[in-house]
Structure formats: structure tokens, C-alpha cells
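We were asked to recover a plausible sequence for a given structure. The inputs and outputs are reproduced exactly as logged, with field labels preserved.

PROBLEM: sequence recovery
POSITIONS: 257
GIVEN STRUCTURE:
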């Protein structure tokens, strides 16, 4: 299987403290790779380096063979790498449809003058964005809520809306930062199914998530961090039995779940 996202030797230091050190792994099309570890292990910092929020102090990030290390997030999005965040980035007073349409912003390449004059080309792009947004809402099972204000949705539905907006960029690689955080069991299962469906369409998925049952259920491969270092990686069943992982994070109960 070809590699779509390649992370090689990534590291970063803040004020003399090495937050992430020499982390490497790969993600292939249609594969779900989860990054786990205790609080402070460096998971979100790693995500921020991969997605261009932070510039790595060492190592490289390659997207389909192209070195994209340190590129700005909008440039990475145009190359096919999109992400969600731990904290919801939803416009609460806008409708669900308007939030989904916002995800098409980077796909709009019309001239500024055409937009200012509201030329037919601008209206065509607006119609295409609305149609695409409605299709995405159907995909994440929010089609019936398109005209509702986003603030009226449940937390789990808002998480799915954020994934829909990330999918509007037509990513080849999707980074999901704790997509089930704060969700109840039913909402987590809905997100679980959605992630699996996105991966089945050929998108490479890199996931950070604290819900270990979900991680063990949907992951093809797991990378374990502790104090910024990679201490283990492998298939879920291998990782769950690894003594270093049990000691650092999973615990005996999770290891036997």
C-alpha cells in the first residue's frame, strides 16, 4: 500500500523543553492511524506540526512524496490535508448549511472584481458551494438540520458538522483531533461510523482520541507517545499488550477491555 502522509523524525522545543522528539510514522490511503498517550504526551503538538500550525524544529512531513514541512495550513489544505480541532470551530449563530458552505472557501478561486460585482460566475460558484454543502450534510446525517441555527444542535452533531466542513476541502489526508471528546455513547458511535465511512472512501485519517474503546475498534495502526517520545506502535491488539503502553497510559483495565 502506498504512503500518503509520511512523518519522519519530527521534533520541537519550547523554551528549552523538548515537547516532541524524533517521531516517525506513515499513513496510507484508506488507513486509520491513531496517536494516543497520556495528557501532555505531545499529541496535539504533533498534530500542530503536521498541519502547519507549528514549524518543526527537526524532521519532515511529506504529503504524497512532496516535502510540505512547515507550510501554512491554508497551503496544506490546498494540497489535500485538512484537520479538525479539540475545541469546536463552529459559527454558532450561523445555520448548519452556512457553516458547511464556509468549508468551501479555499475551493473558491474567482477574481475579486467578479465577487464585488456579483457576476454570474460568482453566483455559479455560490450555487455549487451550496449544493456541495448539502451533499456533505447528507453524508454526515445532518441534511434535515440544514436550515437550523448551529447552536441548536447537540454536541455530537456539532462534531459531525465540523468534520463535514473539513471534508469540504476534499482532503486526501484528514487529521481529527479528539472528534469524540465530550460525546455520549450514542454520539461516539455515530462519529465512529462516520470516520470508518470516510476512510473507506480512500481518505487517509490520522486520529487523536482519548476514548480507548473507539481507538481499538476503528484503528488499523496505533502510535503511542509518552513525554514527547514514541514508545510503541503497531496494530491495536499488539499495542494493548505492550508493557510500556500499559504502564504509561492504557492501564490494566483498558488492556483487557
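RECOVERED SEQUENCE:
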Amino acid at each position: 500500500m502506498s504512503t500518503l502522509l509520511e512523518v519522519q523524525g519530527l521534533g520541537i522545543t519550547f523554551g528549552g523543553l523538548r515537547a516532541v522528539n524524533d517521531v516517525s510514522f506513515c499513513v496510507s490511503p484508506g488507513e486509520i492511524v491513531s496517536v494516543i498517550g497520556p495528557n501532555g504526551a505531545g499529541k496535539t503538538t504533533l498534530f500542530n506540526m503536521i498541519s502547519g500550525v507549528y514549524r518543526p524544529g527537526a524532521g519532515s512531513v511529506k504529503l504524497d512524496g512532496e516535502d510540505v514541512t512547515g507550510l501554512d495550513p491554508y497551503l496544506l489544505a490546498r494540497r489535500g490535508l485538512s484537520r479538525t480541532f479539540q475545541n469546536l470551530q463552529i459559527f454558532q449563530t450561523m445555520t448548519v448549511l452556512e457553516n458547511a458552505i464556509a468549508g468551501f472557501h479555499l475551493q473558491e478561486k474567482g477574481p475579486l472584481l467578479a465577487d464585488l460585482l456579483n457576476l454570474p460566475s460568482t453566483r455559479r460558484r455560490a450555487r455549487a458551494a451550496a449544493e456541495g454543502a448539502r451533499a456533505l450534510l447528507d453524508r454526515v446525517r445532518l441534511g434535515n438540520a440544514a436550515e437550523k441555527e448551529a447552536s441548536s444542535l447537540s454536541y455530537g452533531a456539532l462534531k459531525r458538522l465540523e468534520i463535514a466542513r473539513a471534508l469540504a476541502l476534499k482532503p486526501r489526508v484528514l487529521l481529527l483531533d479528539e472528534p469524540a471528546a465530550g460525546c455520549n455513547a450514542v454520539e461516539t458511535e455515530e462519529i465512529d461510523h462516520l470516520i470508518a465511512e470516510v476512510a473507506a472512501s480512500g481518505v487517509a485519517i490520522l486520529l487523536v482520541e482519548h476514548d480507548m474503546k473507539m481507538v481499538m475498534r476503528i484503528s488499523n495502526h496505533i502510535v503511542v507517545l509518552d513525554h514527547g517520545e514514541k514508545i510503541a506502535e503497531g496494530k491495536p491488539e499488539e499495542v494493548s499488550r505492550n508493557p510500556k503502553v500499559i504502564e504509561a497510559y492504557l492501564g490494566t483495565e483498558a488492556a483487557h477491555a
